[in-house]
Amino acid sequence: MSKKRNRSNSTPATDSGRFPAVDALRGMALLAMFAYHFSFDLNYFGLIRQNFYEAPFWIASRTAILSSFLLLVGISLALANRAGIRWSLFFRRLGQITGCAVLVSIGSYAMFPQSWIYFGVLHHIALASVVSLAFLRFEWGNLGLGLFFIGLGTTVKLPLFDTSWLQWIGLMTHKPITEDYVPMLPWFGLVLIGIFAGKRLLSANKTGIKTWRPAHGFSRLLILAGRHSLLLYMVHQPVFIGLLYLLKTSA
Predict the structure, then answer these.
(1) Whole-angstrom Cα distance, residue 183 to residue 154?
(2) Of 54, 191, 224, 240, whose CB has the highest number of CB atoms within 10 Å?
(3) pTM for the full model?
């Protein structure tokens, strides 16, 4: 009995191969995203007045939230494939993300036909997950490439990439008219840095994030949310919009 208990306490991941700390971090990122989107919806229904497209606070908030999600995408890719690429799991997850990205495009077109989402965060994650397969073998190289792609995507602006069929790459001279735009450059750089961080986590003998376990109910809720992040991402906006619509029409 005691031997089994000691083994479980020293194992960095759960029996399912997940790291509770990574799921909790993803849950925290979800909470921040919920706050941002709920504020956006309040503004959409005229209940507050904020400029989400130009105000430094909201731009910085979006950047921080998006960066945290993409870093966690890279970390999760490194952790999930640490013993080799698990193709069945990879394709199942890729299919789920791609299907949800299509639904986001359809839903955004219904609400914002002039600025619908054609390459948002889910579209980016789907493509980045495929491209990342070529980088999973590297460690420090991903850190260098990640920083290079971030620098390239934030400093180089070429008219060629203003063409509609190249806008998913980035490097545009202006932001396109869309509600969520997450091009490969510079954002793929964060995924690569996340892969680097995940590799370092795996190679560390013992770290807090590797051995952390939830100590109270709120931590467990964060872990639960992090493990179902795609589902929560898909349902939270319909719930927010539905509730605010009822509030608006009943006032």
Answers:
(1) 11
(2) 191
(3) 0.89
